[in-house]
Structure formats: C-alpha cells, structure tokens
Write a structure and sequence with these properties.
The complex is a heterodimer. Chain A is an all-beta fold. Chain A is built from no helices and 7 strands. By secondary structure, chain B is mainly β.
C-alpha cells in the first residue's frame, strides 16, 4: 500500500471497528479506523478542546494518523469557526 | 397553566466545613419568588428557560456578612402588549432584573447537623456527551491550511474528515 505524500492527506473515518471517545474537562479524544486518500487500513486519533466561545484562536484540534509505514500528525489552534462540547 | 415550580434564593453557610461533622445553617434570602417554571442546567447547550442566566454571585464583606447578587424575573412585563398570559404561565414575558441583598445578622435559618456529601454524579446518558467542530488549522505546507470537521458522541460511531494540502 502506498503511503500518501506527507503534506497532502485526505482522512475520513471508516468506522470498520468500534470507535471510542473519552471526555475530560473541555476536551474530547476519539479514535477509530480511517481511510486515507480513499484507501482503508489506517487509524486516527483526534483530540479537540473547546476552550472558549467563539473558538477561533482559542479552541484546539490535533489529529494523528497511522498506517502501514505511515505516520502523520498535525494540530494547533483553530483559525476560524468553533469547537463545541456538550456535557449534559 | 398552574403550579409551575417556584424558585427562591437560598444561602447556606458552614464555618467548620472541614470537620468530620460540619454544621450548616441555611435560609431563604430572597423576599419573594424570583422565578417560575423551568431553569436550564445545561449551560449554553441547555434547552430549558435560561432567563436567569448565570448571574448569581456571592462575596463576603469585612464583617463576614454575605453580599449576594441574583437574577429575578418574577414580574410580568406589562409594557409589552400581549405578554401577560397569567402569573403562572411560562409564556408570559417577564422583566428580568438584578437584585442585591446583604446579610445583616447571623443566620437564623434552620441548623443542619446531619447529612452526607453528594455522591459522584451518574455518568451522562447515551448521547448526552458530544463534541463537534469544523474549522481550519495551519497545514504542514507553509502558507496553506488544513480543513477538518468532526462529530463525536458517547453512544454513536465517530465521524471525522480532515483534508490538508
């Protein structure tokens, strides 16, 4: 399986196995199977935090993707829109 | 509609809260019902009446008397036509005001000598916890951005998409 070129990556959750999600404080971490550039066989982990309203410049998003001979991660403060957590 | 919940403001105090058997005194510090109907316990995500907002504040003055500010929407706004549907009707429009009260003497309410600490709250029901978002972060390629969107709930498969050039 060809690993995607680093810097160009298209990830979609595949949900071929039971995903998991945990909440801690204002953050959520969830993981599951993914397709990368439409190819299955990858796994992703996302951590997102709702730090403020509105979230631009405050909320954070991190993603890591692993697969055969492949590892990718990126993240940081979001530059627009919002991340919203609902606890109840 | 009749018999909606009627809310007052209560003040409780303990001066030995770290003891094995702490004492609490409590009493009503509002002189009238401040709200009728439901209140929201879900913050910004709550679907119930948020008229009281989150504006309850308390502080002690140098004499250790409580100074309390609280919201109050018990009065019907009769200045708006058609707003008066009855005192106990939640569809009536209300005047929302800020109230302030200061403790003048030691609490004269009932003394609570028994009880236990609140237990750990139960886990949220399925679907009650979720985090959603959609935005951009910087790409690993200088000058470009990465787009993403996701929905993660505690009872359903997660959905995430991420695109970075």
């Amino acid at each position: 399986m060809m690993a995607p070129r680093v810097g160009s990556i298209d990830v979609h959750s595949a949900n071929t196995s039971v995903p998991s999600v945990t909440f801690q404080g204002d953050c959520g971490t969830f993981k599951g199977d993914a397709k990368v550039n439409q190819k299955p066989g990858y796994a992703y982990t996302v951590n997102a935090c709702d730090n403020a309203e509105p979230g631009a410049g405050k909320d954070t998003f991190f993603i890591s993707v692993t697969g055969p001979n492949f590892s990718y991660s990126n993240g940081g403060v979001i530059t627009s829109s919002n991340i919203q957590i609902h606890k109840q | 509609m009749q018999d909606w919940a009627r809310w007052n403001v209560y003040y409780a105090e303990s001066v030995n809260g770290h003891d094995a058997t702490p004492f609490f005194v409590q009493g009503v510090i509002s002189d009238h019902v401040i709200h009728r109907g439901t209140i929201s316990t879900g913050g910004l995500g709550g679907g119930a009446d948020r008229s009281l907002a989150d504006l309850f504040q308390i502080a002690f003055d140098p004499q250790h008397f409580a100074n309390v500010a609280f919201s109050d929407d018990h009065l019907i706004n009769t200045e708006v036509s058609g707003s008066d549907n009855g005192f106990d009707n939640p569809t009536s429009r209300r005047k929302i005001r800020a109230n302030f009260t200061r403790q003048l003497a030691a609490m004269a309410g009932s003394v609570v000598k028994t009880g236990s600490c609140a237990s750990q709250p139960p886990p949220p029901p399925p679907g009650a916890e979720k985090i959603i978002g959609g935005s951009q972060i910087a790409s690993q390629t200088s000058g470009l951005v990465a787009n993403f969107g996701f929905v993660a709930m505690n009872d359903k498969p997660q959905s995430v998409s991420f695109l970075s050039r």
